Structure of 2-oxoacid oxidoreductase (ferredoxin):
Amino acid sequence: MIRKAVDLILKSEFPVIICGQGALYSMAWDEVTELAELLGILVGTTITGKGCIPETHPLSIGVVGGRGGANFSNSIVDKSDLVILIGSNTDSANTYNWTIPSRGKTVIHIDISETETGNNYDSINLIGDAKVTLRELIKEIKGSGKIGKKNIILDRSAFEDRLSKERREAVNPLRFIKELWSLSPEEAVLIADPGVSAIYTAAFYKAKKVGRYFIFNYGLGGLGYSIPASVGAYFARPNSLIFSLSGDGSFGFSVGELETIRRVNANVVIIIFNNGSYGWIRAEMKARGKDIVGTDFSSPDYVKIAEGYGLSAYGITNDEEISDTLKRAIKNTPSLVEVIVEPEDKFVPPVMPWSKRFL
C-alpha cells in the first residue's frame, strides 16, 4: 500500500496535503514538512490541525474546509489532482459537506483509526500512526530515484492585503488579527470560541511554529469555552502568553472565571469581539432567507466588568487603536480587551457559502 501511494504521489501533477488533528497528536510536523519540501507539495490543515506546518512556510496554504478555510485555500484543494489526508476525520465541517476535497478526488488517507480511513471517501488507506507512516512514505520516495519537484507557485499576499485594508464602520477583524499576530510571541497560545473569534484566527493568524498552539472547540461549538480553557492553558504553559478570544455571546457563559484568572494571576489576555448579537446565528438566518429574530442583545460595559474583577481592561473602537491598545494589554496581564465589530451578516467572514468575496 505504501508503494501504491508513492506511485500516485510521484505521478501526480498537483498534489495537496491536508493535515488534521491526528497529525498534531502524532507530532508528525517534521515529516509533514519534509515530505512537502521533498516534492514541493502544498500543505493545508483543518481548523483543528492548525500548527502541523508553520503557516509562514512558502508551501503552506493555511486552513481549508468549511471552518476557517477561505476561498483562496479551498480553491487550491479544488484544483488538485491528488489529496493526501493525514490524521483527519473528514467530518462535514472540515470538508464543507464533503466538497473540499470533493468525493471525486483521488485521495490517500493516513490515519491510525481503521474506522476513519475510507469512511467518507473512496481512498487509498494507510492505517497507522501518522509520523511513522509518513516516515515510511518518505523512505520509499527517496529510494525510488524519481524525485521531481512540483513547480507550484503560491502567493496569498494580495488576497490578504486587500481584505485587511478594507475600511469598516467598526474594527476590521482581519486587521485586528494581523496586528495581534505581529505583536504575539512565537510561543503564544490562542484559544478561540466559535464565531468571529475562531474564524478569523483560523483563516488569518499564521502559525509561527509547529505544535499545538491553537485550541478550537468547533466540533461541539460550545459558547464560553475559551475563558476557562485559558486557565488550563496557563497551568500547562505558565511561561507562555495566553490569548482567550471570545465573543459577547460567549462571555456571559463564563464571566465568573475572571475571578480565577485574577486570583492565580494568569498571563492571559481576554479579547471580546462585541457585535451586540449572536452573530453566527444572525448570519445563518440571513443566508437562509429567514427573518432575523432573537439574536440581538444590549451590550453591558465589559471594560467595567473586567475592572471589577481586578483585571486591566481596554476598549478598541477603530483600527487606529489596535496596536497601542494590544501592547498595553499584553504588558499588563491579566487583562481584557473589548473590540467593537460588526455582526457576521454585515461583514461576512470566510465561511462557505456565505461569501464569495474571500477570493
The first helix runs from residue 2 to 11.
